[in-house]
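Supplementary Note 3. Input sequence used for the single-chain structure prediction.
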Amino acid sequence: MNYIDEIFVRANIQQIREFLLHGTEENNIDPRTYIERLESVQDKLYERLLKDYPNETELDEINDLICDFVIKTQDVYTEIGLQAGVAIAAQIAQNLKTAFEGDVRQG
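The predicted structure, written as discrete structure tokens, is reproduced below.
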């Protein structure tokens, strides 16, 4: 395997996420699907809330607060992710432009 193939083998969205969010290069790759990962934590949260809030009205109230927090957090990090993706795409486009300009001058 050449070094370019090795780069693509190491390319992993979860590792990029870990580095961008936490500045680490830890190998925290979770092989589960997105749905499995979400359901796992959702089930744990619901079980724990049910223990502290057996009253359905209180459970719904605290659940709504948590959902509002999660939705706002999701909104913010999605926007950050989109902007980071655009910045990376712009860098790639600039690198390709520079590479093609070099090919034209050499040709």
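Residues 56-106 form the longest helix (51 residues). The chain is about 80% helix and 0% strand.
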